[in-house]
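Predict the assembly for these three chains.
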Amino acid sequence: MSDTPPLLEVKDLVVEFPTRRGTLRALDHVAFTIAPGEILGVVGESGAGKSLTGAAIIGLLEPPGRIAGGEIRLRGERIDGLPADRLRRIRGKRIGAIFQDPLTSLNPLFTVGQQLVETIRAHLPLSEAEARERAIGLLAQTGIPAPEARFGQYPHQFSGGMRQRVVIALALAAEPELIVADEPTTALDVSIQAQVIALLKRLARERGTAVMLVTHDMGVIAETCDRVAVLYAGRVAEIGPVAEVIHRPAHPYTRGLMGSIPAVDEDRDELLQIDGAMPRLNALPAGCAFHPRCPAAHARCTHERPELMPAGATRAACWMVQAEVPR
Amino acid sequence: MSPAPLVRVQDLAKRFDVSAPWLNRVLERLPRQVVHAVDGVGFEIERGTTLALVGESGCGKSTVARLLVGLIEPSAGAIHFDGQPLAGLQGAARRALQRRLQMIFQDPYASLNPRWTVEDIVAEPLREHALVAGRAAQRARVAELLQQVGLAAADAAKYPHQFSGGQRQRISIARALATQPEFLVCDEPTSALDVSVQAQVLNIMKRLQRERGLTYLFISHNLAVVRHVADRVGVMYLGRLVEVAPKRALFTTPRHPYTRMLLDAIPDVHMSGRARTPVQGEVPNPLSPPGGCSFHPRCPHANARCQVERPALLTVQGVQVACHAVQEGRLAPAAGATA
Amino acid sequence: MKAALARWRDSDVWHSFRRSPTAIVAAVIAALCLFCSLFAPWVAPHNPFDLATLNLEASRLPPAWMDGGHPSHLLGTDDQGRDILSALFYGARISLLVGLASVLLSLVVGVALGLLAGFVGGAVDAFIMRVCDVMLSFPSILVALLIDGVGRAIFPDAHDTLAFGVLIFAIALTGWVQYARTVRGSTLVERQREYVQAARVIGVAPLRIMARHVLPNVMGPVLVLATIQVAAAILTEATLSFLGVGVPPTSPSLGTLIRTGNDTLFSGDWWITIFPGLMLVLIALSVNLLGDWLRDALNPKLQ
């Protein structure tokens, strides 16, 4: 337990969607912290709520979705529920964002240089020339060859991997303290993925920027993150250091997840499979959301929802870990 | 004597003309542009086995899949199914063939007609080839097919949007199995699915192969999935096969520099933290591929010959590799890469 | 059937309908007009086209609430003693008949050509699209006038039914292009989708794929177009009848009524023109509003 206060603190976050069939709770008391300079992975399958978590933190929740409870604190001050203009100043200056599709993250009608300079000057008091120099420097740092020439080119003249590097440069332009990256490598080829991940990691370390990396790919998490939170049906199932969660998972869902990932380095006859599917938001089971699919479920799990409790080196939301024999 | 392979492909090629319209070419003096999506690919698949084709985007593996099922016509080369050439087949002979080979697509949301019930979707091949007589027989057969993929008979009355991605993919599999085919072409069938759902679908596919002796051509960009399902693996780059090897050989001792690079690059959950050689460059523009060996700009072992002469796919120690460095003995096989 | 009805009641479209006052009001008005015109012989107080019941002495009566009006002729009578209210119902009947028939014809032709163009592509597609472009460059009234004129010239002693046929054909000819283009666009998209490719791999013939796979998926925008075009067709017919080249005079539509009333408009008998005009506006407006609502309701991006 470090005594430096966390950079980002999310407590009891609740996100709801009112629909004509009733209110859906997409995030249900999600809580985690990110220390300065730390890379936290948020992993989960489709529908688990990981993208929503990122969107809630940046303040880009699409209506009718709204934050219905809990707190989000950036260096101690609350940023949820801020009026739009104050949120806009925080976004970009203190929190940067990287989204999945590099094609749509960049405005096709402006050159890459114009977009960089615009972002820089919106948050830092620099002149046009200074901003330009800084932008070219950023492009060079993200590994784009011939940055001066590339400065004046349009997004469609870049390949997918290059575009994502530009997006990273944009996110870093105003020296944010935290970057929220939502599936930054999913749309890229495997060999490019590796390059972009390495870049993100290096830049984050060099500048002490914290990163919240949202993805469904455990391999990317394994390569990049310090800690990881596993989401299931809008709740945190397990959270802890990456090596522990991957190699010694405590929550039955995490175990099932790790077991169902095929390995490149060994032959296995059958993959572990978790029968059934993640419940839809309008049909969440009572108690622990995972209990209908859990091989270790018992009576308490069906009506009492477990909180995150210590389980070895991680914390898991599971009643079984209390009775667990030390591993 | 080993039996003849079920599928044999020789020198398959497909060229797409992506030139600008005629008027633009004349006025702006633009040249004709052709993409060699598939450029001289040849392989065999033994009955009851799985050949996986891997590669990154633009390598041509999806085009090969579509060529094999007849969705597009090859520009050159031959495809033989059970000894019979596919080219020029018409009418009854073609229909007989279509019963024996089927395809499973990548996108579970687009591969089922959203306005049809599951029963209609799965029964379409049955009706098309007149394999059942009467609605009762059709309903029974559809129920049987659904149960084989782990769904309920009652699901036949529902619509695709009422199912999750994994379940829709199972419906696709049920439809593909309706005519009791021998050969299934699977184009990235689990790429759009979550990891736990992917495990379910892969397990079903392996079980069906064991029970029915199915032959698969499995297209994927995910090497871990390929390791799980394939017997032999072919690696493609810019429309050409660069390495074809039995699974263990490919993963434990990869030979071609591109294969090694791919294996090194994957972020893998179980092997994080190992030392890696950084990857260089990106896949070049398919409109202007490099001359000679198309991988040479990114290859740490390229020499002058690689820049001008295209390497042929030759067998080296039981493995087919298209690489001058390997064939000349300049590059020793990487021992224990992913043992 | 019950399952389909249950699905409809639960659907987003029905829900959006219930929440939109404009749509409900428009639907009620349109339904009323339809009902009155369909059942005109039973609903109308008089039959204005039965010469035996006409009473010349009751001609040019003003509406009932004005001086000189008579309660049995609520909206007054025209210069031949025909009850305006009844004439409205019978006239609306003709207008709606022509409007709906021409929309149906242009829908069938347009959708078929659009499907063909989108699915087959190549030279066929280019040809059909050029025909569309040419058709669009003519103003619709002119086209209708031309066809009508040609029709009358070929069949000078035309049977009434033939005259109707020519009129419906003329109006349909001006409307099919919209359907063709919309359907062609949607077909181009759907053709690439994997369920169509799956059908091809199974061995389904292209015609069957077009009809059973692609068509159901491209009909959405077509329905919206059709609703809006009914209003346009009715107005076109009214214009043609007003110009004297529409429906035969023995079965007057709302347009014909407006025309006959036009002559007496400035002598003070305003009700002969105004009421048919109002009825026309009511029908066109309600159908248009319904079409607008339908387009928004079916647009997934607006939800």
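The domain at 7-285 of chain B is CATH 3.40.50.300 (Rossmann fold). Residues 147 and 153 of chain B are 6 Å apart (CA to CA).
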